[in-house]
């Protein structure tokens, strides 16, 4: 309460704090009115109390409602925090389970080479339990000389950044608890977490793979040796077989010269057969020799105009082709390729004579050409020799390339030892190419062949 | 063309009796009367040429021509050829290699070591007759062979 300068006017001032506000109440009753309204004092007091009560009520209401809001907020936050923690835990467990159960061994070390983690697969690979390894230097899992070199290697890496394994991965050796040294495939990556450097390594025991590789290598070597032996054998055997065979033939010839007129016709026939068989055997051995020579000698490899080669072959066959009433057409001049010209000439000669020999048509038609952009062979030219001959049954397509395999009687279709296609096959194989057969519609055969390896790997 | 005055022996070094018989017969059929000496291997041929062991008391006549098989047991054709061509007294004798081998190595080595020709053995008697005829025509009609110069 404060008196104003005017003695007639009274000033009452008071401040009440309620809710979030300061309520300043000021009244300026004059003495006159004060006296006049003194009778109303009880009313005034009543109203004032009412105001105060409502202010207090408002204040209480505000506090209560704020508290409730805060509680709800806290509850919500706690909940999401709990969920987040649960998720984190779950993820952690998942990661741990994955790391723990990967087939590959997983080890982390710090920058000093001390093992920080070591999963289940590692136990299997190295034979140590994780508590035997964690906290120890990683070099305990290495044989000499890695064991000695690892610390300096790590230091060197951290210093110079020069990596031998980190980020690369390679085959090294590990050492088991029982002392056994075994091959492992190790890939290491560098991990930096909050300024700390860790290295995590994935370890795979490659003993089985190494064993398999060794086996394959052994087999390959054996196969090479046996192939070589086989070639040598064919060569030597053929030579040595030929000599007595020639003797046999010649002695039969002596018999013919000296005693032929002393033999009756049956005896003469037997002698003729004897000589014929000796000749046949010689032809077979000769073919075998030709064939084995093909695997022994190196193929020449020079840029060859196949058009020219083919024309030369046709020139040498000209009279024979006329005799047989055969017509050869060249669809498209053959290109130049790198090959053995003599051997490829032999391929064409053989395919052409086959096309004429195995042909009952009055006019034997042979077409030679090549396919430029074959779907399987791309830019490698696919040559073909097409005939209107007797054709080759589907189930004989492989057989015809086997040595001494003839599909017809010995005397039929001009005879032969059955080595021609085998030799062709070998020549083409030595060039890296492939030969195959397709029917020429319903009359005849098409021989396709290539003279180069297909780099696209389709064949 | 000089005519054949008198038969001069030819030395055949051949381990196979069958092949030798074919050759003999071919000589007869070709009407080539030169006598044939036969040695069954390289060692025997050296003994013959040096007149050693069983050949000590042989006539001192050198063969006019040597027909040499390559593939023989012991001292083979290549070694024998080298030995003959290394020997001052023997190297004038023409040597014709007669072999089943068609290997270019054998052909090359033979000429390198001084063979006068390399003939692949014919397949049969007819081939042999033709070959003997060719040898007769070439070496004994067309060519002049050296006179005997042996001075052991």
Question: What this model shows, in words?
Answer:
The complex is a heterodimer of chains A (459) and B (152). With 459 residues, chain A is an alpha+beta fold. Chain A is 49% helix and 20% strand. Chain A has helices spanning 31-36, 41-101, 120-126, 130-133, 146-160, 207-259, 265-296, 306-323, 341-357, 420-430; strands at 2-3, 10-18, 21-27, 105-110, 115-118, 170-175, 181-193, 196-205, 302-305, 326-330, 336-339, 364-371, 382-387, 435-439, 445-449. In chain A, the strands form four sheets. Chain A has a five-stranded antiparallel beta sheet. In chain A, strands 10-12-13-15-14 form a five-stranded mixed beta sheet. The mean pLDDT of chain A is 85. Chain B has 152 residues and is an alpha/beta fold. In chain B, 39% of the residues lie in helices and 14% in strands. Chain B contains five helices and five strands. Chain B has helices at 17-29, 42-50, 77-86, 104-112, 125-142, and strands at 10-13, 36-39, 65-68, 95-99, 117-120. A five-stranded parallel beta sheet of chain B has the order 2-1-3-4-5. Chain B is globular. Classes of the chains: A alpha+beta (459), B alpha/beta (152). Chain A binds chain B through residues 239, 242-244, 246-247, 249-251, 253-254, 257, 282, and chain B through 16, 18-19, 21-22, 25, 100-101, 121, 123-125.
